[in-house]
Amino acid sequence: MAIIKRYPWISHFLGSPTGYVVHLQKGTVRHQGVGQAFFFRPANSVLSEVPVDDQELPTLFHAITRDHQDVSVQANVTYRFIDPVAVSTRLDFGLQTAGKAPATGREQVSTIIGQLCQSHAIDQIATTTLAEALERGVSQLRVVLTDALRADARLQSTGIEILGVQVLAVRPEADVERALQTPVREQLQAEADRAVYERRAVAVERERTISENEMASQIELAVRRENLVAQEGANARRAAEEKAAAGLIEAQGSAERKGIGAAAEANQIRLVGEAAAAREAATMEVYRGMEQATLLALALKDAAGSLPNIGNLTITPDLLSGALAGLLKEPAATAEVTK
Q1: Dihedral through CA 327, CA 331, CA 337, CA 339, nearest 10?
Q2: Predicted model pTM
């Protein structure tokens, strides 16, 4: 922005890098250009500063479609002043002293461009329906407004160049927009529901597959357990049979051993008995030729081994006489036999 320093009877102007100043003194151009610095007399000088940088102009207006629907159009126009001298002569960009109304050059440009945009946009939208305007209105309006503004004679003569037009939105009224959004919203909701149902179906299918796998695993485990039980039973039966067979063999062996032992014992008893019988027979044969007194003495001898201790023995005369008689008779008999 330009800086003006005021002194008595004279002032000093210092321009900016984006402002094109035009200094008129008594109707004659004394200074012009960007970044100027000079002294001037306020009493006979007029200063105008035209911006030479790119200007952005947002605009918003309404239009009626062919099917009588109101739509709002939001656009943005980029322009610049290519002939600042012509602009300063056609529009008010004067530098005013303090206390005076500011220049209205920018407002004038905004009004001119806004009216041109609205006029051409209304003509274009009036030939389309609401659906077409919402579908292709942005691109169509961008082309139409760009061509129309660049070809406008007033803008060209004023020294305004249109750099570009951007149509940001073409929207219907709020209730119409909600009504138009409802089918799409319902369709999106239906798609979302369908996705949820499909996801649930996939989850159910996966759960079913998992359940089937678990059931198959349980069946397989049951079959293996059954086979294991059967095998264990067969093994137990086989072990019992083997144990019974072993017991039978052991019993048979024990019986045979007992039979052999019994037969040996019986044979031994028989042999012992026969030996004892033979001994008895021999003994009886010996005793058969002995006298009664000798047999009695032997009997007493055998009996004496089993009799208890005898503390006192009483011999009667009868017993003594009988024993002596026997003893005396025995030598006589012996002598007779010798003879």
Answers
A1: -160
A2: 0.53
